[in-house]
Amino acid sequence: MSNGELAQAVERALAGVVNPRTGQDVVAGGQVREVSVDDSGAASFVFSLRRGDPGALVREARAAAQAVAGVRTAKAKVELPQSASGSEEAGTARPAPGAAAGPGGAATRTRPSGLRPGSVPAPTPSPGILPGVKRIVAVSSGKGGVGKSMVASNLAAYAAQSGLEVGLLDADIYGPNIPTMFGETRRPTVAGEKGSEMIVPLVSRGVRIMSLGLLLEREQPAIMRGPLIAGILKQFMEQVQWGSLDLMVVDMPPGTGDAQLSLVQTVELDGAVMVTTPQKVATGDVRRGIKMFERVNTRVLGVVENMCGFQLPGTDEVIDLFGRGGGEELAAELSVPFLGRIPLDLAVREAGDSGEPTVHSAPESAAGRALAEVAEGLLARLDELAVRG
Questions:
Q1: What are phi and psi of 69, to 5 degrees?
Q2: Residue 111 φ then ψ, to 5°
Q3: Are residues 366 and 345 in contact, defined by beta-carbon separation less than 8 angstroms?
């Protein structure tokens, strides 16, 4: 089959992908163009993602193209929705307001400028990274202090306890707390011959762990700009001997910045878990985080509501110090699954200080049972998505 015939076959496959928002297939709806296949079997096409379209639509289109016999890989160049003015194609580079042309026509910034709506770079994950890892899940939040690292640690520990091969990558470069959560002070070793050395992750509670916190001195701060963060994350994925994993959990820093964008542009995530506390100041930031993941075509697997309800010792009285139900309401509002709520529990604080995840140290505590239910729900969700293909 010639490249042209193969491109036609890819276009026919893409015509089988229906946009649930419009009811039209993406080819008839004009969302796909420039379909081509090169001599190596790499297919590519431009996909126009429009306002209101589900982020998973691009992933579905890419999977349909890659399923065509003769296609080795499929890459979609995503065009995001136009800015409010409609005068430019979203994501197109342009000099910022107040910028002057430098040598060769390059723009030199002369004063700060905010991001325009729709200017988030489209993810272009490399299929060669982490070839032995079956599933990758990011645990993220909109703001710090909501228990994101605690949830990530317990999800990983519970999955390993259930018999899965699990890795935990600490992508929170500025606040690498995963070593503390597992009570680790050891240094990773290096294996392999000179020029092809690989870092060997630590194994703790059955989980393979890598964190910048394992490489820094105890009081040494991580002082670095965005490009360095991207480089460290790439190193942790490409130069760590992860081996074969059923699941990799990535503990993200709070917010919607360099680390989040670097991750989705490096590997193809199976989805993200969002952690929040019930009050509006937290759920508002998590809402932005969910929208960010949707914008970069990453499925949100669910919302976890942490720190809701504290039972006074020796009584049946429960006090909702941070309110209750904010995470569940947010999940319902944005049509994403609600994975469960975790109460304020002394067992969680004690587990974090002792360096043992709550699902190990206090499995029968209120928080231990809640964390187990959240982990079971997440693993079931991943299995369900795998069956759907």
A1: -60, 130
A2: -155, 160
A3: yes
